[in-house]
Amino acid sequence: MQKIEHIGIAVRNITESNKLFAKLLNTEHYKMEEVESEGVVTSFFQIGDVKIELLQATKESSAIHSFIEKKGEGMHHIAFAVEDVNIELARLKAAGFDAIHHEAKDGADGKVIAFLHPKSTHSVLTEICSDKDVSK
Ligand code: ZN
User: Which protein residues have a CB closer than 5 Å to ligand 1 (ion)?
Assistant: First the structure.
């Protein structure tokens, strides 16, 4: 793991949340992006070296939808930058962590990503990510 890349926050209404977080962080979001495969629309704020990713569900089958139904809005996941998602995933699985994704898949903001199951990480939903062109 290289650093914390971003922190994901589940929200009900990303337009309203963009305003709230712009006020909180004193900076505007720099992009919005839909990740259709995950059923989410995301928006990103840059805070120093770390990003804040807001996620709103676009359909009921989205993991963000069920998260909010169960727990309400709030901290959803922490994402670590790694050099190569597939190599790191293999290391983590060998170390006994449960993976949700078994190989790198496309995520938002030019990244490939994979999630670990929170069951195996003290309920901290953990994402690993790297830039799309490094890991294919
Ligand atoms: Zn994320």
Answer: 8, 53, 79, 127
